[in-house]
Structure formats: C-alpha cells, structure tokens
C-alpha cells in the first residue's frame, strides 16, 4: 500500500509542475498583452516616480491621459494630486479635460463636476464653485453637492442661504450649527443697531438649540445697547443654566453693566461667587483686578493665594507674585519682579484658547474655529487649564 502511494506521488509531482508552468505562461501572456496596450509615457512616469522625480512623472502621466481617453481613473487621480499639492489651476484643467471628453460615461461626468467644484472651492473661486454644485441638483451627486454648497455659504457669510439649505436637507447641519447661523445674522444686525431684527434671529436660534449660549450673550448685548441694563444682566446670568464654563466670557460685560447701575460691589460679589464655583483663568483675571482696585493689594493677594491653593497653575502664580510685589520689602522686590516677568513670558503662550478638533490656538475666543471651520469646538478655557486636565 505504501509503495502504491509513493508511485502516485512520483506521478503527481510532474503533473502539478506542468500545470503551474502552464498557468504562469497564461498569466505572463496576459501581462505582456496588457502592457503592450499601455503608452510608453505610462512607463516613463513610473520610472520618474521610482527615481523621485514627481514633477516629470506627472508630466508623463498627463501625456497618458491625453493619449488614451479611457484612462478616466488616471484623470481623477492626477486631479486630486494637483489639488492636494495646491496646484488648483492644473487640477481644474485636468477635471475640465475629463468633462470635455466626448464619450465619457454619465457617472464619470458627474464625478468630474464634483471634483471640479472642489477645485474652484480650494482656489477660492466661490461663485464658480457654487455654479457647478447648483448644476448637480437633481442628479445622483445632489447630496454631495449640497454639502459643498453649505460650506460655500459659510465661507461667503451667506447665512440665510445656509439656513434655507439646512431646512431643505437637515442631515447636512446640526441644530447647534443652524443656531449659530442665526447668531451670525443677529451679530450683523447688532452692528447696524437693528435691535428688533437681531432679536428675531436670536429667538430662532434658541428655538433651534435652547442651550445656545451665544444667543443669550448676543441678546444681552442687544438689551445693553438699548439701555435695558437690568434685562441684559438677567439674560447673561441665564448662561449659568446653559453652560457655566462660558461665564468667564461674560465677566467684563457684567461688570460694565453693574458699574452703569452704580452697583459695583454687587457685581464683584457675583463674579467672586462664579469664581468659587466655576474657576477659570479669565475669571480670576477679572476678579483680581476688581479686588485690587477696590480693596487693595493685601485683599488681592489673599484672593489669588486661596485660588492658587484650590487650582494650582502658572497663571495663578504669576498673579500671586504681582499681588505680592507691593507688599514686599524693597530688598526682595527685585527678585520678585524678575520671577514674575519670567513666568509671565511663559504664561503668554499658555493663555490661549484651543480648538479641540484641530488644535488651533488663539488669544481671542472664536465661536467658529478659523482653522477647521467647526462650530463651538473651542471651549471657553485657556490652554493651561486643558493641560491641567490631562
């Protein structure tokens, strides 16, 4: 029995070898046949890529695209490559060339229009991008086109168009984002002292998102602008129920209102209470200055000392040294000033707001990140406070 199996194995080995050789021959013939169909520019482009000459490789691939109108995917790949490299003019020509091909399939034509619209958008040609995406309405690419139209309207600050588009296609914008669009409209009306129009937009914003802090911030601004100081204070205080972290952004507004009503002490007490319950670098900055002005260096020093014990940090330490300087002996003031200035130079880099989506940092607070365009992605907390939480 074993001898029989050995004989069969001896017979099968050459059979399998022959089958493998035949398959290899068939595959090789297929490869050779397909390679003969490719233009020489294609292989030249590959060679340039292997030799780390991307610009010459691109030129060779462009020649392939011109020679063979069937290389649709190559058109798309080259166009996307150009756009990523910031060469929007070449990307536009590539995608326009694809649209001009007489025998291009409908699905490829629509895809090319989407890509061309993105090229115009990347180049900052918003009108031309909007025109392309509007042409795609009613097609299979309509949903994608509307997403880009929303981006165009936001870049162009056409907030009513953005709202209308979000109403038409709710999945492209969250209620929080739509509320921000209304706030943008309201901010424009406040700049023109159009209080009633601003109020209507802010009412709509709160209907979209009852936790929209910015809507109450701006509504308080409208009331303060119209001399309704008590109402403005009450409106700003409602932010505590929405998100108390944003109270730090309102500290200066609240104190200005309380001073206008000649109730400065009440305002200081309110902010000190906020600082105790919702500590932040912005609040301690405002409260420190208020206590320093009204109660003197000793009280300001005690305030910062207590806050530093509760929430240690370099910004608090810098304030502690500032408060200590007037109380120190002349001999030690020089050393304290040196230490304070060193810490202050470092804390300037820490006292920034930071977007949680892209990491963009700024001294000013932005409701929409200037770098990535996300709404409410920057918490109202300074950079040092983030680092303390890590």
Can you walk through the features of this model?
With 390 residues, this protein is mainly alpha-helical. 74% of the residues lie in helices and 1% in strands. Strand 1 (353-354) and strand 2 form a beta hairpin. The protein is elongated and about 85 Å long. Residues 7-13, 15-19, 21-37 and 385-390 have low confidence and may be disordered.
The description of the largest β-sheet is: 2 strands, antiparallel
CATH architecture of one domain: Alpha Horseshoe
Content of β-strand: under 5%
CATH class of one domain: Mainly Alpha
Secondary structural class: mainly alpha
The radius of gyration is 33 Å
Quickly count the helices: 21
Our measurement of the CA-to-CA distance between the termini, rounded to an integer number of angstroms, reads: 73 Å
Q: Enumerate the strands of the largest sheet in spatial order, edge to edge or round the barrel.
A: 1-2
Q: Can you tell me the overall shape?
A: elongated
- Spans with pLDDT under 50 lasting ≥5 residues? 7-13, 15-19, 21-37, 385-390
CATH topology of one domain: Serine Threonine Protein Phosphatase 5, Tetratricopeptide repeat
Q: Provide mean pLDDT, rounded.
A: 80
Going by CATH, what is the homologous superfamily of one domain? Tetratricopeptide repeat domain
Number of strands: 2
Q: What is this structure, in a nutshell?
A:
Helix content is 74%, strand content 1%. The chain is mainly alpha-helical and 390 residues long.
């Amino acid at each position: 029995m074993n001898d029989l199996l050995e004989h069969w194995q001896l017979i099968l080995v050459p059979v399998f070898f022959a089958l493998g050789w035949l398959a290899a021959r068939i595959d090789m013939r297929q490869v050779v046949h397909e390679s003969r169909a490719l233009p020489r520019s294609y292989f030249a482009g590959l060679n340039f890529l292997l030799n780390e000459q991307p610009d010459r490789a691109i030129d060779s691939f462009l020649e392939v695209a011109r020679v063979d109108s069937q290389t649709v995917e190559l058109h798309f790949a080259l166009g996307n490559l150009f756009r990523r490299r910031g060469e929007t003019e070449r990307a536009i020509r590539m995608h326009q060339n694809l649209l001009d091909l007489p025998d291009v399939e409908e699905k490829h034509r629509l895809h090319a229009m989407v890509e061309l619209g993105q090229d115009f958008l990347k180049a900052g040609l918003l009108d031309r991008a909007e025109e392309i995406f509007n042409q795609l309405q009613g097609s299979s690419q309509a949903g994608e086109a509307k997403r880009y139209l929303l981006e165009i309207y936001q870049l162009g600050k056409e907030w009513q168009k953005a709202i209308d588009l979000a109403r038409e296609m709710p999945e492209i914008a969250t209620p929080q984002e739509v509320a921000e669009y209304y706030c943008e409209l309201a901010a424009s009306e406040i700049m023109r002292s159009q209080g009633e129009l601003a109020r209507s937009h802010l009412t709509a914003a709160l209907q979209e998102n009852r936790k929209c802090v910015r809507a109450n911030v701006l509504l308080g601004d409208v009331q303060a602008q119209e001399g309704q100081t008590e109402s403005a204070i009450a409106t700003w205080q409602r932010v505590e129920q929405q998100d108390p972290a944003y109270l730090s952004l309102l500290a200066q507004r609240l104190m200005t209102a309380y001073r206008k009503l000649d109730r400065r002490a009440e305002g200081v007490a309110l902010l000190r209470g906020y600082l105790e319950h919702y500590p932040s670098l912005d609040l301690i900055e405002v409260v420190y200055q208020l206590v320093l002005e009204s109660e003197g260096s000793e009280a300001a020093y005690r305030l910062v000392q207590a806050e530093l014990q509760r929430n240690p940090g370099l910004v608090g330490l810098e304030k502690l040294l500032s408060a200590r300087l007037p109380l120190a002996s002349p001999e030690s003031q020089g050393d304290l000033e040196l230490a304070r200035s060193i810490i202050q130079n470092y804390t300037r880099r820490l006292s920034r707001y930071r977007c949680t989506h892209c990491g963009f940092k700024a001294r000013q607070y932005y409701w929409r990140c200037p770098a990535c365009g996300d709404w409410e992605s920057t918490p109202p907390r300074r950079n040092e406070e983030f680092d303390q939480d890590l």
